[in-house]
Design brief:
five-stranded parallel beta sheet; five-stranded mixed beta sheet; alpha/beta; 21 helices; about 525 residues
Length: about 525
C-alpha cells in the first residue's frame, strides 16, 4: 500500500480524486491538504508520502513551488500535476523539475486511470529495486562479517599469524582498518549460552561500546569482544567497562559471567599471545566471586585480587571447621592455602575439602551414602565460595545425620521438589536440577526414584499435566497458551501427552467438565 497526498484548494476536486481512487481498488491511502502551505507542513511531519498529486494553480504557494520544496525533502517522491488547458508555461517549468506526470482538468476517467496506474507501477519497480539492493547489501555485509570473524578466530588460535609487523597482509587493512589500539574483552559464562537460537548479543554489545567494535563467538561458553582501546585508560576504567558487561548479561539474560580484559594490542600478530594470557587468567575464575572482572595487567575482582579473596574465604572456613571437631592436621592443609600459594588449583582446593570431610570426628562409616553424596557435592561446586558453602552444609548435615540418617536425603528431595514447583514451566532438566543441589545427574536420579517412586522426568511431567488440568478447568485461556504456560510449546506433543495421561484430549477434558 502506498500513501498519496492530494492537494487542491477546491474541495470538490479532492473528493473527486478520492472517489476515483476507491473505484479502481489501487489500495492507496489518501491524505488531503487544501493549500500548498498545509501540504508542505504535513510532509515535513510525515515522511511516508509516496505520491504527491497537486493542482498547479493555488494561492501563495502554488503546485510548482510545492513540488520543488517537497523534492528537497523526499527526493524519490512521485509527483502528479493537475492542470487546465492553456497552462503551457507551468508545464514547461514542471519539465525542468523532472515531473512528467499530468492529469488535465476537467479530469477524464481514462486519462486519470492511465496516469495514476503508471505512477503506481513506477513505485512498485522502485520498491523492488530497493529491496533487491538491500538484500545485496545484507549479503555483502554478512560475508564481510563472516570473513572478519574467521580472520580474528584464526589469529586467536594461532593460525594465519602475520610474520612481520610491517608486512601485514592486505586482508588486515580490510578487516581491521580504523583500529589504532585494540583491546579484547573475553566473556565467559561457565555453562552453555552462546549457542542459543534465540540469542543475538552482538548488536547489544557493540552498541554498548559506542565506537568501533567486533564480536566473535568462540564456543558455547566463551566469546570475545574486540574494541578500540586507549593508552590513557586506567585500571579503574577497564574494571568499570568489565562491570558494565557483567551487569548487561545479568539484566538482559539472567546470566552470571566472568570478564577478562586484555592489555593494549598494537599489532594483530599479538592477538594470539594476549588471548593465551587471558585464558591463563581465567583459570583463577574458580577462586573469584560471581561477576569477576580480570585484567591481564593486574588481576582484579572489585577492589580485591584473587589471592586476598581466597585467603578471606578460607580463613572464615577454618574458623567454623574448628567448631565441628575436624582433625587439626587437616586444617593445616587449608592453612597452607592461606600462606600465599599462588599456584593453587581448583582440583587441589577440592582435594583439601575432601580430606577435611574425611576427618570430621563422627562415625561416618555408618553413613556411607551421606559421605558419597558429600563428595559429589564437592566435585560439582563451580566456585570457591560455593565450595565453602557446600562444605559448611555437608559438615553440619553429616553431624546431624548420625541421629537422623535419612534426614539429609529428605532435605535434598524436598529441595528438588521446590525447584520443580518453581521452574516446571521452563526448560528444566535432570542436569539443571542436579547442578542446583550439587549432585551428579545419575546419583540424583537414583536418589529421587528411591524416595518418590518415579523418575524426575516423570515427576516433572505429572506436575505439568496436573497444572494444565487445573488451568483447563479454572480459566478460559486458549489450550495452546496453557501448553506453553506449563512448559510444552509444541501443541501436538502437549495434546498427545495429555491424552495419554488423562485418556482424553485437552479440549475433551475441558468440555466434559462443563467449562
Amino acid at each position: 500500500m502506498y500513501n498519496m497526498l492530494v492537494v487542491d484548494d477546491d474541495r470538490s476536486e479532492r473528493e473527486g480524486v478520492k472517489f476515483l481512487t476507491e473505484q479502481f481498488n489501487w489500495g492507496l491511502e489518501i491524505y488531503e491538504a487544501d493549500s500548498g502551505e498545509s501540504a508542505l507542513e504535513y510532509i515535513r511531519d510525515h515522511s511516508n508520502i509516496d505520491i504527491l498529486l497537486t493542482d498547479i494553480r493555488m494561492r501563495e504557494l502554488d503546485g510548482l513551488q510545492l513540488a520543488q520544496k517537497v523534492k528537497e525533502l523526499l527526493p524519490h517522491i512521485k509527483i502528479i500535476f493537475m492542470s487546465a488547458y492553456g497552462e503551457f508555461e507551468y508545464a514547461q517549468k514542471a519539465i525542468d523539475l523532472n515531473v512528467t506526470h499530468y492529469i488535465l482538468k476537467p479530469v477524464e476517467i481514462g486519462e486519470f486511470m492511465r496516469v495514476v496506474s503508471n505512477v503506481i507501477r513506477l513505485c512498485d519497480e522502485e520498491q523492488k529495486e530497493k529491496l533487491k539492493n538491500e538484500r545485496i547489501q545484507e549479503i555483502y555485509w554478512k560475508g564481510i562479517r563472516y570473513e572478519k570473524q574467521q580472520f580474528l578466530y584464526d589469529l586467536i588460535h594461532g593460525r594465519g599469524m602475520i610474520a612481520e609487523e610491517d608486512n601485514e597482509s592486505p586482508d588486515t587493512a580490510i578487516h581491521f582498518s580504523g583500529y589504532r589500539y585494540l583491546r579484547m574483552a573475553m566473556i565467559h559464562t561457565g555453562s552453555r549460552f552462546f549457542d542459543r537460537n534465540d540469542l543475538d548479543v552482538e548488536p547489544v554489545l557493540t552498541g554498548m561500546i559506542g565506537g568501533k567494535a567486533d564480536f566473535v563467538n568462540l564456543n558455547e561458553v566463551q566469546s570475545v569482544l574486540l574494541y578500540e582501546g586507549s593508552p590513557e585508560e586506567t585500571i579503574e576504567d577497564l574494571i568499570r567497562m568489565g562491570t558494565l558487561l557483567v551487569e548487561l548479561f545479568k539484566e538482559k539474560h539472567s546470566a552470571d559471567v566472568s570478564i577478562v580484559i586484555s592489555g593494549l594490542i598494537e599489532s594483530l600478530k599479538h592477538i594470539g599471545s594476549e588471548y593465551n594470557l587471558m585464558e591463563t587468567m581465567l583459570a583463577n575464575k574458580f577462586f573469584m566471586e560471581k561477576g569477576a572482572v580480570l585484567y591481564t595487567g593486574e588481576v582484579k575482582s572489585g577492589d580485591r585480587d584473587v589471592y586476598s579473596n581466597t585467603r578471606r574465604v578460607l580463613f572464615d572456613t577454618t574458623e567454623w571447621l574448628k567448631e565441628v571437631e575436624v582433625d587439626s592436621d587437616k586444617i593445616v592443609l587449608l592453612i597452607e592455602l592461606l600462606e600465599g600459594r599462588k599456584t593453587v588449583s581448583e582440583n587441589y582446593a577440592k582435594y583439601v575439602c575432601t580430606e577435611v570431610l574425611k576427618s570430621i570426628d563422627r562415625p561416618i562409616q555408618h553413613n556411607v551414602n551421606d559421605f558419597i553424596m558429600g563428595l559429589e557435592r564437592i566435585h560439582n561446586a563451580s566456585s570457591l565460595m560455593e565450595l565453602m558453602e557446600v562444605m559448611r552444609s555437608i559438615a553440619q548435615d553429616m553431624i546431624a545425620s548420625v541421629e537422623r540418617p535419612r534426614e539429609l536425603f529428605r532435605s535434598v528431595i524436598e529441595e528438588v521438589i521446590q525447584i520443580i514447583d518453581r521452574e516446571y514451566c521452563s526448560e528444566i532438566t535432570l542436569e539443571s536440577i542436579a547442578k542446583q543441589v550439587y549432585l551428579s545427574p545419575g546419583y540424583l536420579s537414583r536418589l529421587f526414584k528411591k524416595y518418590k517412586g518415579k523418575s524426575i522426568v516423570k515427576y516433572i511431567t505429572s506436575i505439568r499435566l496436573e497444572k494444565a488440568g487445573e488451568l483447563l478447568l479454572t480459566s478460559n485461556k486458549k489450550i495452546t497458551d496453557i501448553g506453553k504456560e506449563v512448559g510444552y510449546p509444541n501443541f501436538a506433543y502437549f495434546s498427545a501427552l495429555f491424552k495419554n495421561n488423562y485418556g482424553k484430549t485437552p479440549s475433551q477434558y475441558r468440555e466434559e467438565q462443563g467449562l
